[in-house]
Structure formats: structure tokens, C-alpha cells
Design goal:
This is Putative DNA-binding domain-containing protein. Residues 5-85 form the Putative DNA-binding domain. InterPro entries: DUF2063, DUF2063_N_sf. The structure is a single chain. By secondary structure, the protein is an all-alpha fold. It has one domain (3-92). It has five helices and no strands. It has helices at residues 3-9, 22-43, 45-51, 53-66, 77-92. It is globular, with a radius of gyration of 14 Å.
């Protein structure tokens, strides 16, 4: 799949890649967000509760958009999420 596909479903661009419909791409984006949100919440349910729904959604969207996550398995998200949080914390402290 072309790089533009991944950029769109991760939320890094709003440009729908050629050969795809906007509705279809929005569905892919939502499913990636939902899968990431559910898998991370399994490991950190208290974090979602503490942040509240709006902040949780923003955090997960930032994670999906900015992470270095390359695995095809949602189960690998836990480690990448921790690395993402560490990078975010380091960036805020510099």
C-alpha cells in the first residue's frame, strides 16, 4: 500500500490518496484509532479515566499520528505507547 495511505489513516495528512474514497479512508482511520485506543486502554484503564474522554482521544490520535509504530500487531502497541509517552515527556522537559 502506498505511503499516502498510511499517512492518511494515521492522521498525518488530510489528502486522500488516489484510488481511494474519502468515506473509505475515514473508516480505515477510525478503525486504526479504535484498535489502538482499545489495546492501550486494556493496559492502562486508569489513564483513560484520569484524563477524561477528550484528552484521551487527543492522546491516542497523537500517538497514532506521531509514533514509530511499525508492527502489524495491535498487541505490540503497549511498548510503543510507553516509548511515545517517554518521548513526549522528554520533549516537554527540554
Amino acid at each position: 500500500m502506498p505511503d499516502g495511505f498510511y499517512q492518511y489513516i494515521r492522521g498525518a495528512t488530510e489528502v486522500v490518496p488516489a484510488g481511494y474514497t474519502e468515506a473509505g479512508m475515514r473508516a480505515y482511520r477510525y478503525l486504526v484509532f479504535l484498535g489502538a485506543s482499545q489495546m492501550i486502554e486494556v493496559h492502562y484503564p486508569e489513564l483513560r479515566q484520569q484524563l477524561g474522554e477528550a484528552a484521551w482521544k487527543e492522546l491516542i490520535q497523537a500517538f497514532v499520528r506521531q509514533s514509530a509504530w511499525t508492527s502489524h500487531y495491535y498487541g505490540d502497541l503497549k511498548d510503543e505507547f510507553l516509548a511515545f509517552l517517554a518521548r513526549q515527556t522528554d520533549a516537554e522537559n527540554t
